[in-house]
Amino acid sequence: MVQMSKELFEKIYTDVDCHYLLHPWGKGCITSLPVLFKDSLIGSVKFYSMVYLIQILMRGKKMRKKEQWLKMGNYYIRSILFGQFVAGTASIIGCIVRKLNGNKFKFNTFLFVPFTLNGLFIYLEPPSRRGLVINLFVNLYIEYWLRRLERAAYIKITKIRTTALFMLGSALLFYLMRLEGDKKERTQLFWLFTPDKVRRKTDDSNNVCPHQGSCHKYIFKGTATYFALGLAFTVARLILPRIRSPMTAIASLRTRHLKLAMFFGSYIGIYRAVICYLCRKRGCDSAIYALPAGCLAGLSFIFSPSLGIAIGAMTGAMKLYSTILYEKKLLPARLPLPELLYCICQGTLFSARVFYPEECPSYIFNLLAKVSNNRSEWIYSNYKLLLDKALEQS
């Protein structure tokens, strides 16, 4: 696809009517809003139903308490409102911005400004979930720019480099997570595994490792549990799109479908094995053991490499380190830096969905389409149609 530029955009789209690019389902800027809000509500309910179902399954036994269900219900409603307002207000903000620009579309304001401004609806999410959403979008933002740099031939993303990034990120992330082990309120992270806190010498136990029972059982249990979790994700990913024929989907399972399970299982198994070895060797436990353990565990990444996961490990470590900086008052607590960062990330990524679809992370495609109930695809279709016509005439 042709790379969009400021000159090309303003040559094709400057004088296009706003209803064609922002609300093609209705000519009026105001009268088209109810339709978009209704579809955004439907889309948000569908999208966040799956998100919260996965979270409930991952929480397992914690969901036995009534309070957990009430809290999850409250979070679910707030997430729906967040999705609805982001998707539902983009077109009207875009129309207002166009009006301020003299009824003309501008490259830098067409989508970036509307989606950056309504990124402030992130405050509808509860603080505990807000951090997870911000962290996800920072990951996607970094991935997007790495893809753009690779396309421009400034860097080359290889399996070896991605694995090295994941090894470094895992080492720092596990180390900082273990440092936080004694806190009452730990930093919210959506990660594969939360390591056991450091066993202090004052603990009334002869075991120097951070677990109860034998090391072999501890390592095997972690490996088997996460292997099964990875396999469950793979099976769900195969079956859900083919829900009418689940047996056919199961029959289509092949050895290659075990890659994610092997990654999950070996990742936890290696980490636990190295921790236990160092604890036995040194005769005590320490948070610093997580550095070599996390680094070696990162080798399991070769089974199922993903740039997004590699970036996620590093940004997770950065988030934990920023918490330390906030606690030491080296970062101003009154300035909402994470929320402002989210707004920039959202504006950039949602505009990249239209302008640079080849570099935009696939998650953004899915998110926009699902939450807007496919209204975003209608807008992109009109945008692409005008672009194709202009290129044919040139």
Topology:
Layout: H1 6-13, H2 18-21, H3 33-59, H4 66-100, H5 112-117, H6 127-151, H7 159-179, H8 215-239, H9 246-251, H10 259-282, H11 290-297, H12 307-327, H13 337-355, H14 362-371, H15 375-393
Helix pairs in contact: 3-4, 3-14, 6-12, 6-13, 7-11, 7-12, 8-10, 10-11
What does the model show?
The structure is a single chain. The protein is an all-alpha fold and 394 residues long. It has two domains: 6-156 and 333-393, no CATH class; 159-219 and 266-327, no CATH class. It is 65% helix and 0% strand. It has helices at 6-13, 18-21, 33-59, 66-100, 112-117, 127-151, 159-179, 215-239, 246-251, 259-282, 290-297, 307-327, 337-355, 362-371, 375-393. The longest helix is centred in the first third of the chain and has 35 residues, at 66-100. The protein is elongated, with a radius of gyration of 24 Å. The protein starts with 5 loop residues before the first helix and ends with a helix. The relative contact order is 0.14. Its main location: membrane. It is a multi-pass membrane protein. Residues 17-143 form the Transmembrane protein 135 N-terminal domain.
